[in-house]
Automatic annotation (TrEMBL):
This is Phosphagen kinase C-terminal domain-containing protein. The lineage of its organism: Eukaryota, Cryptophyceae, Cryptomonadales, Hemiselmidaceae, Hemiselmis. Keywords: ATP-binding, Kinase, Nucleotide-binding, Transferase. PROSITE patterns: PHOSPHAGEN_KINASE, PHOSPHAGEN_KINASE_C, PHOSPHAGEN_KINASE_N. The keyword Protease does not apply.
């Protein structure tokens, strides 16, 4: 019901981003699913960090990229500020900072709009925009901001960048610039403009990882539970090391509709998309095109520049799950500047069967993808590894190398996607587990897997079809992550089969229609005891039983409700035997929040 949806959650749903790995916290994850039926995300009070339900802050108990949140396809337009342009100019406070320096490039006429976040913050932001010098890489629809001071973040700003950025750190790094011209402000821009982002910092080039290390390392640690200061990342692209028994292979062939493995690859010497100049972007495309030409015969295909595709071709590729979408101005990539000069320099390479694909200049310079129908994970991973090797070899033949760091692994735009940058996913139909999405998400989390809907991050699981993939990116090799996915999916299939068998059994199962949830072993045992001890209620039905709690429930960390926060042992003791004349008790009122 509506009672579960906070105003904040509604606003945040409208602000969902679709792009970026912003959605894969390796840390704690409890589902934040299901806005509609009162699962945790929507139930969180407005002050909770959960506000980012849609785009994925790695926050307490949230798996905000969960698929049950409907994708906001048009967040770009929804987020356009209501106010006009020229009128707002005069309303802005006079800025005492000088505007463009004499030798700075002329400022282009701009359709760039600031978001509306909070009245006071918005005024500050407007002042910063007005005072920001023009950047040679500004475009008609995008302006890089230069923050003169640590942004006065609002309660809506949830990112790890915000948590990391102290006034001291800001002061220390604010004038630092990479040789490509990427600044601290550039890296922070998406996180400042889009408060709900979970990471909130983008790298603009390889040097960013060194110069802004003091920002990036804590973010990496917060997101991945991997400390680059003390840990090393290992890559292993030997597909023969993945083991899958014949039994597993048969199970996968039965349940898995399609398999996909992707990762980011960027080339040293060129900016990453958020910091790219037009020249760099085109140069990247040039190097990649040469690399595609040099691929071995079994990986050969054609490169299609995005600008050369008809609208029909583009949407057919998108509908098939083969191609990325244009980033909206207020999505992560748009807000970070990675959507400038769209579609120039972007494109897709694929073979005829569309089992080998490369994206050019979307979130990363290159995303390499292997996919095919069915559940032959070893085969798909093998093709992925061959593609990875070939892109590396072909780049090196051209005198280029891939961005790779011994601590951070493969480098990319978003710190949430470092290390392997690998996402190995299966599309799998799970009709039984689909009946309790919240539980499915918990099960996945237990295996370090992440469920997404049938058409990508933030989409719904149509017909019980899920995209389930590894959740971790760094600290494990590619082989290890694929193996974890294979083994986790095997267990999930076993659970699905068990449930199906139970439900098909009918008889005794149907007679006891009421089932307790599985929340946490200790709590579950307590709940079972309460159920057994609860007296029958005349209003009980075949499929529902009213519980009578004998004591304040031993709530778990998963219990997020205001009821839980309100209910003290004293209050419980005081009201536990109170009954309305209609027979409704305190336990009756609490039951949903406990279960
Ligand atoms: P990524 O960040 O890995 O690119 P997205 O969630 O943005 O993932 O999805 C990209 C596209 O790939 C979507 O259209 C999605 O449905 C598709 N996709 C993901 N996994 C699979 C799979 N195993 N089989 C087929 N299509 C898939
Ligand atoms: Mg993506």
């Amino acid at each position: 019901g509506l009672g579960n949806v906070t105003a904040d959650a509604i606003v945040q749903q409208q602000e969902m981003t679709v792009s970026g790995e912003e959605n894969v916290p390796a840390a704690e994850q409890v589902s934040a699913a299901q806005g509609a039926d009162g699962a945790p995300a929507a139930q969180e009070p407005p002050t909770d960090t959960r506000a980012a339900a849609a785009d994925g802050a790695p926050k307490e108990g949230s798996n905000q990229d969960t698929t049950a949140v409907p994708a906001a396809v048009d967040e770009g337009t929804k987020e356009e500020p209501a106010g006009g342009e020229a009128s707002a100019e005069s309303a802005a406070p006079p800025s005492d900072e000088k505007t463009a320096e004499p030798e700075a490039p002329a400022r282009v006429e701009s359709s760039f709009r600031l978001p509306e976040i909070d009245a006071e913050f918005d005024v500050w932001l407007k002042g910063q925009l007005d005072a920001s010098p023009a950047d040679a890489k500004d475009t008609e629809d995008f302006r890089y901001l230069t923050f003169s001071e640590l942004p006065p973040f609002t309660d809506l700003h949830k990112s790890l960048m915000r948590k990391t950025m102290t006034p001291e750190l800001f002061a220390k790094l604010k004038d630092v610039k990479t040789s490509k011209g990427y600044t601290l402000s550039n890296g922070m821009q998406a996180g400042v403009l889009r408060p709900h982002l979970g990471v909130g910092f983008t790298a603009g080039d390889e040097e960013s990882f060194e110069l802004f290390k003091e920002v990036i390392y804590p973010i990496v640690e917060g997101w991945h539970k991997f400390d680059p200061n003390t840990q090393e990342h290992k890559s292993d692209l030997d597909p023969t090391k993945v083991t899958m028994s014949e039994e597993q292979a048969a199970l996968f062939q039965k349940y898995v509709k399609s398999t996909r493995v992707r990762a980011a690859r960027n080339i040293s010497g060129f900016s990453l998309p958020a910091g790219s100049s037009k020249e760099d972007r085109l140069a990247v495309e040039g190097v990649l095109k040469q690399a595609f030409e040099a691929l071995p015969d079994d990986l050969q295909g054609t490169y299609f520049p995005l600008g050369g595709l008809t609208a029909e071709q583009e949407s057919a590729l998108q509908a098939g799950g083969f191609l990325f979408q244009k980033p909206g101005p207020m999505q992560l990539l748009g807000a970070a500047g990675a959507g400038r000069d769209w579609p120039e320099g972007r494109g897709i390479f694929h073979n005829e069967a569309k089992t080998v694909l490369c994206w050019c200049n979307e979130e990363d310079q290159c995303r390499i993808i292997a996919m095919e129908d069915g559940g032959d994970i070893k085969g798909v991973f093998g093709r992925f590894c061959a593609l990875s090797d070939s892109i590396k070899t072909a780049s090196e033949a051209n005198g280029k190398s891939l961005m790779y760091d011994p601590k951070l692994g493969f480098l990319g735009t978003c710190p949430s996607n470092l290390g392997t940058g690998l996402r190995a996913s299966v599309m799998i139909v799970l009709p039984e587990l689909n009946k309790d999405v919240h539980k499915l998400e918990e099960i996945c989390a237990g295996f370090d897997l992440q469920p997404r809907g049938s058409s990508g991050e933030h989409s719904a699981a149509v017909g019980g079809k899920w995209d389930i993939s590894n959740k971790q990116r760094i600290g494990f090799s590619e082989v290890e992550l694929v193996q974890k996915m294979v083994d986790g999916i095997t267990k999930i299939i076993a659970m699905e089969e068990e449930l199906a068998a139970k439900n098909a059994g009918g008889g005794e199962v149907a007679a006891v229609g009421f089932k307790l949830p599985e929340i946490e072993p200790g709590f579950d045992a307590w709940l079972e005891g309460q159920l057994t001890a609860s007296p029958a209620d005349v209003k009980d039905t075949d499929e529902f039983r009213y519980l009578t709690f004998s004591e304040l429930p031993p709530f778990t960390d998963l219990h997020k409700s205001l009821m839980r926060k309100t209910m003290t042992p004293e209050l419980f003791a005081k009201l536990k035997d109170v009954k309305t004349s209609k027979g409704y008790t305190l336990s009756n009122g609490m039951q949903a929040g406990v279960l």
